[in-house]
Design brief:
The structure is a homodimer of 207-residue chains.
Chain A lengths: L9 E5 L6 H11 L4 E2 L2 E3 L13 E3 L2 H9 L3 E7 L2 E6 H9 L4 E5 L1 H10 L4 E6 L3 H11 L4 H14 L8 E4 L3 H17 L7 H6 L4
Parallel strand pairs in A: 1-7, 1-8, 2-7, 3-4, 8-9
Antiparallel strand pairs in A: 3-6, 5-6
Helix pairs in contact in A: 1-7, 5-6
Chain lengths: 207, 207
Amino acid sequence: MLSKKKKGLLIVLSGPSGAGKGTICKALMKKEKNLKLSISATTRQPRSGEIEGKNYFFKSEEEFEKMIENDSFLEWAKVYDHYYGTPKDFVLKNLEEGNDVVLEIDIQGALKIKEKFPEGVFIFILPPSMEELKNRIKKRGTETEEEIIKRFKSAYEELNYVSRYNYVVINDSVEEAVEKIKAIIIAEKCRVDRNKDLYLEIKEGLV
Amino acid sequence: MLSKKKKGLLIVLSGPSGAGKGTICKALMKKEKNLKLSISATTRQPRSGEIEGKNYFFKSEEEFEKMIENDSFLEWAKVYDHYYGTPKDFVLKNLEEGNDVVLEIDIQGALKIKEKFPEGVFIFILPPSMEELKNRIKKRGTETEEEIIKRFKSAYEELNYVSRYNYVVINDSVEEAVEKIKAIIIAEKCRVDRNKDLYLEIKEGLV
């Protein structure tokens, strides 16, 4: 047994819109009950079926701006005219307690998180092809033609940010993508730079 | 599908003698039939049950020194008055063909491999405790009292080298250790720095 309580991992699932990070995240949370999902706050309208406090905390502009003032966000951004933000307390508390926290977040947000948590595990979800990405953005059906083109262009540009991440997972099968993410979490816990005290403890016979 | 054939991973299982890397390696190879095991050459006497060409290539001193002359080793070393070496051809050929190659090797050998293959996956197998390590060295029963003390002291010193590795896996249960190594292999294949061409190919629509 370890003498010191190990902090949890911050697992950041990110990628261009339409890559399927939402679907993968949902499947991952279903399989790995010990993971804690960070719920974002947003000022955008709920899509059909989205539930307050489960999918998002839906806020008015005024409420959101008040939270910014109170330094309640780990990061926040304005994307496509809406605010999105990651409430700070939930993440910090869980990591401190040794729980692994999952963040599903756009690329802009992930890069801000990386500045504060360089030790996080940054996973870039890739669509299997640009053609497939276009189909997925279209299928969502909640956007106008203009918005679809805007999203696709942006997704194309965003692929350049993959180099700032630790891992890349192609979403051609949700099940396989989830298995890969599970493996990444296990492997990260074995990384030498996350276990610096371990061999000292073994030497000293504390373990 | 990728347009370029990806090279295989070189997976180096290493650790102090008595940590159980041999047992773990055997269990891993049994579970993962696609992995290719590199067989070492040695001048030490076969232990009971060891088979030529399966456990080692057993060589005379003269034969081994000839191989050194012919530059046939990826690395070689003299440990406890015996030569050990990793034949070069098998490893290079398999990596080139896209096969993952496993090397089970002492720490001295692993560090030499790392100089030539910094992109290898270096896994340090730790015993659950120093007490357990002592028991395991004793149980092996093939060494004299003097040799046991020599091995234990050396194992104690060798723990310092863990920082040169990528991963550390504690061998308290062989099954769990094998699962961790399997996860590490999956995760490593997802690392961004091993997939640099991938997003370019996706952008260009080659995938």
